[in-house]
Task: structure prediction
Amino acid sequence: MKKGHACRQAGFTLLELVITMGLVSVVGLLLVVIIVNSTGVFYKESSKLSQGLNSNDALSSIRGDIKQSNGVVATYTDGSTTYTSGTTQLILKLSSIDSSNNLISNTYDYFVYFLDQKKLRLKSFPDPASVRKKQDQIFSTIVDSVLFQYFNLSNPPLEVSPTTASKVKITITLKEKSGAGYETRTATSEATLRND
Result:
């Protein structure tokens, strides 16, 4: 007797392999889309956090120096560079301090805040008798604009020239690439000068 059964080998048919490859491709594509979207959200949120920290650190430092300051200075010259207080530069005059943290009378250190391309910078120029160190600090590298406004203490405050100001308002706008577009954040603060 002949057997009517054809000998069949174990394995997958071509149709089964094509269907499996199609399903794996679809699942892989979905995973790639999810990962790309998650990465975009991460970078966007990380950008917001970075901008927030940059602006808060900068505003906190400027506000603190304004509160310690004896006044705003019209100009300060360091070598061949002259800084001028105005809407984009702020020059503060702070009493120098000795090694015991006491104020030195009639001796001053100068702090200059300014925008250098997209960098918000602080340069300090201490008197030789002061224990403060000369510094050149960058607060942020994504600053789109900075605005210093000078006011008196009247109610409501009136805008005045920098050297007669009792209060300074600072507005910082940060702009950073986020995905295909840009994230822009603006932070504002103000502080009253010590004026003694």
About this structure: The first strand starts at residue 71 and ends at 72.
